[in-house]
Amino acid sequence: MNQIELIHQRLVDADGLPAVLVAGWDIFDLIAASCSAGAGESPDLYPAFTFARGAAVSGRNAIAFASSMPPTQGGAAHIPPKSAPIACTVARPI
């Protein structure tokens, strides 16, 4: 089974919102990693891959701040970065 099929199966088997959020986190993480790899392999498509990676990271961060996100179910990778409160403070006036 490849990663896409594995994550798809976890999404299908998700029972409740927290499980769906964890699967969503993994989906956005896979997209970001795939875009990073694609950007390095295809210089002509670098801007498109970079834009798509940014969107995936934004989606992953939105899930990280969801109040229903389990704090430890997905491991340490599911904990929002320590700089997140600073980013929110800076972004509010904008």
Short description:
With 94 residues, this protein is mostly helical. The protein has 4 helices and no strands.
Structure commentary:
With 94 residues, the protein is an all-alpha fold. The protein has one domain (3-91). It is built from four helices and no strands. The protein has helices spanning 3-13, 17-41, 46-64, 84-91.
Mean pLDDT comes to 78
Helix amount:
55-70%
Structural class: mainly alpha
Q: Please tally the helical runs, counting DSSP H or I stretches of 4 or more residues.
A: 4
Radius of gyration: 15 Å
N-end to C-end Cα span? 44 Å
Shape summary? flat
Strand content: under 5%
Largest sheet: none
Q: How many domain regions?
A: 1
- The low-confidence parts are 73-78
Topology:
Elements: H1 3-13, H2 17-41, H3 46-64, H4 84-91
Helix pairs in contact: 1-2, 2-3
Keywords, please?
94 residues, mainly alpha, 4 helices, flat
